[in-house]
Each structure stands twice: as C-alpha cells, then as structure tokens.
Design a protein that fits this description.
493 residues, alpha+beta, Hypothetical protein af1432, Beta Polymerase, domain 2, five-stranded mixed β-sheet, three-stranded antiparallel β-sheet, 10 strands, 54% helix
Length: 493
C-alpha cells in the first residue's frame, strides 16, 4: 500500500480537511523514515501506511489513523513530541507517545538489567500509556497485525518468538476487547508459524469436512430464509467456518472431531433484540434443538461484551447446525469489538469517554474505565492497586520472562519450579535455586506478572517429594513423578 492507496480507502470516511491532514502525515513520516528499510528490503514507510490502512478498515477516527502513520517516528527517527504536536495536534502526539511508551516498556521488561528498581516503573509506564487512551492498544494491535502478515521476511528464530508472543499476549488482548476478527487472524497467523505441520493437517481436515457439509447446509439455510421471509422478518444470513486454531484448541478438549458441532455456523442478523428471540423460536419450530447447547449471551453477555443467541439444532437431513442470532450492532461489535465504538470520524475519545460517561461503552468493559482511573492516579504520583487490572486483561494467566527475554504465559499462582519444567524437564530436575528480578527467591515464591526468572542448576540436584508442594501445573507434576519413579527403579533393581 502506498500514499495514494491509503488516501483512496480513507476518502469515503473523512472530509477534505481530514484527508489533507492525513496526506501531510504520510509525507511527514516518509521524510522521517527516508533511507530506512524493512526486512523485506522495501522502504520502511510501507509499514506505518499499512497500519493506518488497517485502522481505517476498523473504522477508527482521524487522529488514530494519523497516529498509525506516525507511530514509529518517535522511537525510530529524530522526531520529537513537540514536532508532532506542532503539525498534528496534542491528541495525535499523545497517541504516538503512548504507543512509543508501550514499546519501550516491553523492551525494558525483556532486559534483565531493568528488572531491579525499574521493574515497577516499566509496568507503570505501560499502564499509563494504555490506560490514558485505549486507542493506544488498538494502534498496537494494528501494528502487530501487519507485522504478522509480513512475518515471512523475518529470520526463523524471530518468526517463532514473535508468533509466540502474538499468540500468548496480543491475541488474548484482542479477545479481551472483543475484537473477534482480529483475534482470529492473529491466532491463525501465529499458529501457522509455531506448528506449520499441524496447521496444514488441520486446514486440510477442516476443508474436507466443511466441503462435504456445504450441500446439506444450503438446504437448511434456504428453509430458515424462507420461514423468516414468510413471517416478514427483515434479516441477513451468512456462514462462519471455524478457524484452524479454534479447531486445534477444541480437539484438545474433544478428541473426536465428529463430536464437534460448530465447524460451520449460520449467522442470522436482525433489526432488534426482540426479533432475536422470535427468530430463535422459529428455528426451534423447524428443527429440534440440542437443549444443552442453547446459550443466551444477550441476557448474559460474555466478559468481553460479546452478545448473541446460540443454538444447535438437528436438521431433518441429519445435519447438526449451529445458529448465531444477533442484531447488526451486536455483529459489528463481535467483529471489531472496541473499535466498533468509533464510528469513523464522528466520535473521538473525549474527556467524557475517559471518565466512562459515554453510553457506547459496553457494561462488561468496565475494566477499561477502571484502567483509565488507575492510570490517572499513577500519572499524578498517587498509590494505586493495579493487580486486579493485570489479571483482568489476561484472565487467570500471568506473563513472565526468561533472562533472554522469551515470554511465557503461566497459570496464576505458579511457582518457579513450574516455570523451570515449562522450559525443559532436565532444567527442572537440576534446579537448586532461582534468581527472580535479580534477587534470590525460595522454591515457595509465587510468580508475579512480569517476573524475570533465572533457574540456578546443580548437577547433583535431584527431584524431591516435597517439590510437589511447590508446583501447580500438571506438566511439572507428571515430569517430577516420572523422574522420581525412574530413580526409585534404578536404585531398586
């Protein structure tokens, strides 16, 4: 994508003044990044232009799109905050600075030297950058999405590292913001690099299964469409095929693919909530439902704000079909999540939004308002409890680092031994101590978000029975049990 293409896709959404600002931003960034190259050998400017294009596609406001164009200028060029503010205004400068702080904070968390007194400062910077304006997160997600789309140009080791971080950090973050379409693409791209063989195998299975089901599904779709038309219900219908990574996760729980009923789902999109329930009843009047698979996410939305009615029915041709029934607004939010709150250039993040006063914010995203309040407290130098917000962002997982900067997600409440066995069973079995954030810690220490963990080994160290008191992961438990059994058998031939 070049300047002309970006302006072309932005034209339907912005007025002439905004397009002129965007054009200036592209020229400004191109000059600042002049001479810089990507791993592909292409001019660096294609990356920020592509990020801005993604933000336009997501329906973001003009300030966010311009910040997308400029997002690397503070970090990678001689550009100053004041320079950006002079040409593009304080809001844009604020967003670019926020994205830069996130990048620097994450880089700092990977450097063990910064994990002494500066550890809390890095996390604080990250919270402040993200919390003061949620658009910062959205720009980072667009940045990561384009980097994943062009990951093939990176060295193999870098591909794996970036893909793992994407799967363990950025995809869950997109899910937390209910940005379903973005989450799926990030997961698919990451999985294709982390386990290309399994990705190809499951892709083939999915294609074969869905191909054989399409004809039967078409008959069901026509029957529902006819019924809703007869009842004079305006509606749209489309299909959704399960993603490869979602199938991979599902097979971990249900090994028999024949027992997975949502490989293909039909979506029915209607005008209002009352009609959603009416359509649910009409579908059940045609096909008997599997009662334990009726889910009402309208009355009780998911934690990320997702709303829809789900039902699985048995069609008369023997086909098992899942239906998702929702309004247009619910569908838009399911696809684009928080980004759907930005109706192109009509709504910006005003002070009222930052105070949680805009009704468009779904009730189940209250944590964003809480995050903003905590960020304001930290910004003013006040004490603030951030622990519940860290947990809220990534459910009940925490993220820790090796001394080399590799990121690992662990269950909340994990111990250092869980981490050691996660790295390698031999490393765990020879563990004699742990240096965490530059200080020695006991086996009983519970890992915290952002810890940098170095495992101290001793060739004479051996697993002990009391180690079971200092692990919570099944993987570590199984490895220790196996090592103890092997030692017992060798000492009692």
């Amino acid at each position: 994508m070049d300047k002309k293409e970006l302006l072309s896709i932005a034209e339907p959404y912005f007025d002439e003044d905004h397009l002129a600002e965007l054009s200036l931003a592209i020229s400004f960034a191109a000059e600042k990044h002049l001479g810089q190259k990507r791993h592909s050998g292409e001019p660096y400017i294609i990356h920020p232009i592509a990020v801005a294009g993604i933000l336009v596609d997501w329906g973001m406001d003009i300030d966010t799109v311009i910040a997308g164009v400029l997002h690397d200028t503070l970090e990678d060029t001689e550009t100053s905050f004041d320079e950006i503010e002079k040409y593009f205004g304080r809001d844009v400068a604020f967003l670019v600075d926020g994205v830069t702080k996130v990048s620097k904070a994450r880089a700092g968390m990977r450097d063990i030297s910064s994990y002494l007194p500066e550890t809390k400062d890095n996390l604080t910077k990250l919270l402040i950058a993200v919390g003061q304006d949620v658009r910062v997160i959205i720009i980072k997600l667009a940045d990561r999405l384009h980097n994943m789309r062009t990951l093939k140009h990176q060295p193999p080791k870098k591909q794996i590292k970036i893909a793992r971080e994407t799967l363990e950090v950025f995809a869950p973050l997109a899910d937390r913001l209910n940005m379903g379409r973005i989450r799926v693409e990030l997961e698919e791209l990451a999985f294709s690099y982390l386990d290309s063989k399994e990705y190809k195998r499951l892709s083939h299975i999915l294609k074969d299964r869905t191909g054989r089901s399409q004809r039967k599904l078409t008959r069901v779709r026509k029957a529902i469409d006819q019924k809703l038309t007869e009842e004079h219900i305006p509606h749209q219908m489309d299909g959704r095929i399960k993603s490869v990574y979602s199938l991979y996760k599902k097979l971990k729980k249900i090994p028999d693919i024949d027992e997975i009923y949502d490989l293909i789902a039909l979506r029915v999109i209607v005008e209002d909530v009352t009609t959603c329930y009416l359509v649910l009843g009409l579908i059940h009047s045609l096909y008997p439902p599997m009662v334990n698979r009726i889910k009402d996410y309208i009355a009780r939305p998911k934690m990320n704000g997702y709303q829809s009615l789900h039902t699985t029915v048995m069609a008369d041709n023997g086909q098992i079909v899942e239906f998702q029934i929702r309004t247009e607004q619910m569908h838009d939010y399911a696809e684009r999540g928080l980004a759907a709150s930005f109706h192109y250039n009509a709504q910006k993040f005003t002070e009222a939004y930052r105070k949680g006063q805009i009704a468009a914010m779904p009730a189940d995203l209250r944590w964003i308002t809480e995050l903003q309040e905590v960020a304001a407290q930290l910004h003013e130098g006040k004490e603030a409890n951030v622990e519940h917000l860290k947990i809220d962002l990534f459910a009940n997982r925490i993220f820790v680092y090796s001394p080399r900067g590799d990121i690992y997600d662990m269950p909340e409440g994990s111990y250092p031994l869980d981490f050691a066995y996660r790295i390698h069973s031999d490393l765990g079995s020879k563990a004699s101590g742990f240096i965490i954030n530059g200080k020695m810690k006991p086996f009983s220490y519970k890992l915290q978000y952002g810890d940098v963990i170095e495992v101290i080994t001793n060739k004479n160290a051996k697993p002990k029975l009391d180690w079971f008191d200092h692990i919570i992961t099944v993987h570590a438990r199984n490895k220790i049990r196996g090592q103890l059994n092997k030692r017992f058998r060798s000492s009692n031939p």
